[in-house]
Amino acid sequence: MTVKANIRHGGFAVALVAALACAPFMSAYAQDAAPGEGVIARVNGEPITETDLANAARDFRDQLQQLPPQAWRQRLLDLLIEIKLTSRAAEEEKLDQDPAAAARLKDARDRALRLEFLRQKVFVPVTEEAIRARFEKELADFKSGATSW
Q1: Distance of CA 10 to the CA centre of its chain
Q2: Cα 56 vs. chain centroid, distance in angstroms?
Q3: pLDDT by residue (tens digit) across 98-110?
Q4: In the chain, what are the helix, strand and coil shares in percent, each to the nearest 5?
Q5: SS3 93
Q6: Is 27:42 a contact under the CB 8 Å cutoff?
Q7: What is the 8-class DSSP label of residue 120?
Q8: How far is the C-alpha of 122 from the C-alpha of 114, rounded, in Å?
Q9: Where would you tag: which of 18, 69, 92, 104 has the fewest CB atoms within 10 A of its CB?
Q10: Within a 10 A sphere around the Cβ of 89, how many other Cβ atoms?
Q11: CA distances from 32 to 51, 62, 77, 84 (A)
């Protein structure tokens, strides 16, 4: 990743400074992952996976719509690298220990956990098997007179 690429893609000055400071430790676009891991890049040894990219696509959907579709993947990867670098720089400066930042981090964690709970428990895709099983249960309960309605 070059400075030109960051500027062209609208990178932030802080991310640029962090990227330059961490450049010796960064091995982005690493292809040394075992098959099936889906690691597409590493930043300071920390992987960025296909799942991370998919999550970022969902989180930054509105911003991505302003770009041509063929630029989405690279822009998302650049953004995830910038996020990891600036996040580590903030931790090194102990900004995560500031009371206001700690409160925002707790709030972000709570929101992420709420969303994950809703995804897994509420918005679960309904399968034909699940519908059939529920139908069979309701039918059995109906025949035995055990329905609650």
Answers
A1: 20
A2: 4
A3: 999 999 999 999 9
A4: 70, 5, 25
A5: coil
A6: yes
A7: I
A8: 11
A9: 69
A10: 17
A11: 17, 32, 17, 19
pLDDT in tens, 126-139: 788 888 998 999 98
Count Cβ atoms within 10 A of the Cβ of residue 41 and give its class: 0-12 exposed, 13-18 middle, 19 or more buried.
Answer: buried
pLDDT of residue 143: 75
- CA 107, 75, 13, 51 dihedral sign is positive
- Cα 67 to Cα 2, 62, 63, 77, 107: the distances in Å are 20, 10, 8, 14, 30
pLDDT in tens, 33-81: 444 469 999 999 999 999 999 989 988 888 888 888 888 999 999 999 9
Closest-CA residue to 14 (of 72, 70, 95): 95
Query: Which residue carries 């302003």 as its tokens?
Result: 66
104-113 exposure pattern, b = at least 16 Cβ within 10 A, e = fewer: eeeeeeeeee
CA distances to 25, 28, 90, 104, 109 from 18, in Å: 11, 14, 10, 22, 24
Residue 48: helix, strand or coil by DSSP?
strand
pTM of the predicted protein model = 0.57
